[in-house]
Write a structure and sequence with these properties.
Number of helices: 3
Strand content: over 45%
Low-confidence stretches: 4-23
Structural class: alpha+beta
Number of strands: 10
CATH class of the largest domain: Mainly Beta
Radius of gyration: 20 Å
Shape: globular
């Protein structure tokens, strides 16, 4: 009887310890990052606002269809800003939509770099197909000026998502 008690106690303790490890693709995507609310109003340039400043230690959540605007800061040099979206497979309904667009702006909105996926252009597939089996859609763009870069994301897909960014020195 005492052995069963210790076995049960061990199994319960092991289960609670395992609960602390990233066991889902969502937990793996988030890693040690902290979620932030992105509901502020940060003026960026004439008529454009961001909801928050996003860095590599944080992530934001949301639902499509919608748009999301964040600021990403860089220092001197050429940088690649990668946008990563975890498209939650467990929250439904999910619909791929017909249009997804991501824009990166240089500070002060002096230049805009746009990526677009729609049924009308040459980029084939849908957001979920592009995300693949791990449900992570990612795309990056080079920026060259130091400062706050506005990143705008819009999609008419239907999905819950988590978003994070990676900033890497551009390799030449």
């Amino acid at each position: 009887m005492l052995q069963r008690f210790f076995l049960l106690a061990f199994l319960l303790a092991s289960g609670s310890l395992l609960g602390c490890l990233p066991t889902t693709s969502e937990a793996a995507f988030v890693g040690g990052r902290e979620e932030i609310r992105c509901e502020g109003v940060w003026p960026v340039c004439q008529g454009k606002y961001a909801g928050c400043q996003l860095d590599e230690a944080h992530f934001v959540g949301g639902t499509f269809p919608s748009s999301r605007k964040v600021l990403v800061e860089t220092t001197d040099g050429d940088w690649m800003i990668k946008v990563l979206l975890f498209l939650d497979p467990d929250v439904g309904p999910r619909f791929p939509g017909t249009e997804t667009e991501i824009s990166w702006y240089e500070p002060g909105c002096s230049d805009q770099y746009r990526w677009q996926m729609s049924l009308d252009n040459a980029t084939t597939g849908d957001l979920f197909e592009r995300a693949g089996r791990d449900n992570v859609f990612e795309i990056e763009r080079a920026v060259i000026e130091p400062g706050d870069h506005l990143i705008e994301i819009y999609s008419d897909a239907t999905s819950r998502y988590l978003m994070r960014i990676e900033i890497n020195k551009r390799q030449r």
